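Changelog-linked ticket: erythose-4-phosphate example.
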Amino acid sequence: MLYILDTADLEAIKHCNEFYPLAGVTTNPSIIAKEKTDFWKLVKEIRSIIGEEKMLHVQTTQKKAERIVEEAKLLKEALKGDFYVKIPIGEEGLKATMELKKLGIGVTMTAIFTPAQALIAAMAGASFVAPYVNRLDNILGDGTEVVAEIVNQLELYGSDCKVLAASFKNAEQVHKCASAGCHSVTVAADILKTVISHPMTDAAVAGFDKDWMSVYGEKTILDL
Ligand code: E4P
């Protein structure tokens, strides 16, 4: 499972890059706009925090295939390293994906809501498909079930396209995607924190501390 951070908040990126086994960062136009700052400065800063080995996914703002390709080339040139352009599914997006495949620029096909959309994106050459779990759950769909179906179909057709599940509201959705064999998830920092938290863990650690201190006081192993 690849854990990716879905934010352009530099402090959150610095924190999670230090404390979690982070595989990269994803953004979208809404996430970027939230920071209300210079676009290029922001995305280059993200790249410098995570380094060139980790994945950086940045979404195109173009609608026409030729312009999407042009923008993707510019982004790849500027951001270097392990880079993916995010393109919403659609005819122009598929055309751009096939072109970018030839150019060796990775594509994450985004705004995916059905297995049928994911499969055709994979056949066009997308490296990742990004189904929106919570947005499906919000309309009485079953986001994690859709992720499971996509995982199965890609396997059935021997595709090397990976599922990058996106749009999460809670840790349970992340867990269900993992159980379905989903390859990667992109989540906000608070979801990562929830994933590692459990009241029983806190109770266990409090018990260890109490027992240790009853014999050794404030001393740690380093002091003994
Ligand atoms: C990722 O590709 C999506 O842009 C993102 O995860 C959407 O998340 P949201 O539904 O919380 O906006």
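Closing comment: Example verified and attached. Residues 2-197 form a domain with the TIM Barrel fold (CATH 3.20.20.70). Residues 199-216 form the longest helix (18 residues).
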